[in-house]
């Protein structure tokens, strides 16, 4: 299917996170959107959620030391490295010839994904869907829905198929 696409220098922004859904979306993108001898650039974007704001003294009277805050930051950075490495490995395994760039941002994923798509002038944004039901989506918000409503470029939301009880997809 992807072999019939006219070669063009496209910027394909793929939002990745800790969930299987984003790696599935990346994999789907590599199989279905990237053609052989493609001049496309795949931009992997991971957004680290903002660290909760703590005062030096929490509500129970305990102090948050700089060591604890540094440990929280290190953990956040380690997660980002793991997510990006997994995404890059997926790219190498499925489309070694594709040009891959990486961006790691800090903040609210809903806003930053939209801002980065605009800033880099992405041709398409690819993202996975967690498949939350109505209640969870209302409580937690949907990053993919927010991006679909606010990004200027086309948005491809890839939904990971649910496994049936027999174990097949």
**From the helix content, strand content and strand pairing, which structural class follows?**
alpha/beta
Percentage of residues in strands: 15-25%
Q: Give the spatial strand order of the biggest sheet.
A: 3-2-1-4-5
- Say how many strands there are: 5
Assembly form of the protein: single chain
Number of helices: 5
Mean pLDDT: 83
Low-pLDDT segments, ≥5 res: none
Order of helices and strands: EHEHEHEHHE
Alpha-carbon Rg, integer: 18 Å
Measured between the Cα atoms of the first and last residue, the distance is 21 Å
Helix residue percentage: 40-55%
Shape: globular
Largest sheet properties: 5 strands, parallel
Task: Provide structural commentary.
There is one protein chain. The chain is an alpha/beta fold and 169 residues long. It contains 5 helices and 5 strands. A 5-stranded parallel beta sheet has the order 3-2-1-4-5, with helices on both faces. β2, α2 (66-94) and β3 form a beta-alpha-beta unit. The protein is globular. The protein starts with 10 loop residues before the first strand and ends in a 10-residue tail after the last strand. The relative contact order is 0.21. The model has no long low-confidence stretch (mean pLDDT 83).
């Amino acid at each position: 299917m992807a072999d019939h696409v006219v070669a063009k220098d496209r910027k394909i922004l793929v939002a990745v996170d800790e969930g299987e859904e984003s790696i599935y979306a990346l994999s789907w993108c590599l199989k279905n959107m990237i053609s052989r001898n493609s001049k496309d650039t795949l931009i992997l974007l991971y957004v680290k959620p903002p660290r909760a704001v703590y005062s030096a003294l929490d509500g129970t009277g305990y102090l948050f030391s700089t060591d604890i805050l540094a440990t929280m930051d290190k953990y956040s950075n380690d997660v980002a490295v793991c997510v990006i490495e997994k995404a890059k490995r997926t790219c190498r395994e499925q489309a070694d010839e594709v040009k891959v760039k990486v961006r790691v941002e800090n903040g609210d994923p809903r806003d930053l994904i939209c801002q980065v798509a605009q800033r880099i002038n992405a041709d398409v944004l690819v993202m996975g869907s967690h498949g939350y039901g109505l209640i969870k989506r209302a409580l937690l918000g949907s990053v993919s829905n927010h991006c679909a409503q606010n990004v200027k470029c086309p948005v491809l939301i890839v939904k990971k198929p649910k496994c049936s009880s027999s174990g097949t997809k």
